[in-house]
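Researcher: Quick one. two chains, 230 residues in total.
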Amino acid sequence: DQQVKQNSPSLSVQEGRISILNCDYTNSMFDYFLWYKKYPAEGPTFLISISSIKDKNEDGRFTVFLNKSAKHLSLHIVPSQPGDSAVYFCAARSGSGGSNYKLTFGKGTLLTVNP
Amino acid sequence: DAGVTQSPTHLIKTRGQHVTLRCSPISGHKSVSWYQQVLGQGPQFIFQYYEKEERGRGNFPDRFSARQFPNYSSELNVNALLLGDSALYLCASSDVPRGGANVLTFGAGSRLTVL
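Model:
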């Protein structure tokens, strides 16, 4: 049972335009949501996170929106740059708190930004 | 400052063999987690260790085991390898929990191929 779903395997956008990556989840107990970016032959790199009690978090060109009622979050990248081309993973954190936690990842979305 | 380092980067084993993967966390990080990423999927949680104690275990068979050493480095062991164990094995470390998202920093991974 996939608790975190990224339904778009790929997305292609033009340089300078907005990229919107979507993610849905089923477990209401997730307390944080994170986005990671992954280039080939490298490990995932953290981009931005949002607490389950917030609805928006912004960091430079990256903004994450959380809609708890719909169990949906999205990552907006504005403006998109060719260097943003990578696989983007949505991840959700769960655990009993303190030092006990794990991330549940979606399958990822391959973003291609065309010059 | 060195990031999370993993060894070996690539290895090939045959069915039934045993493998040991190693991970050195970022200096000062006391928590290490292991994830398995099969081609086309997102990373899947295997283990989390904090202060040398197992704090979480994912849905993996007993053939998978791990430990954390006094210097906070970690080993992942897999016995009786199956073809389905072929994957990228990612190690991640994080700082002492202080609230917030406790972002995981990933290494580049160990690519295991089982023939």
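The domain at 4-114 of chain A is CATH 2.60.40.10 (Immunoglobulin-like).
Researcher: Thanks, that's what I needed.
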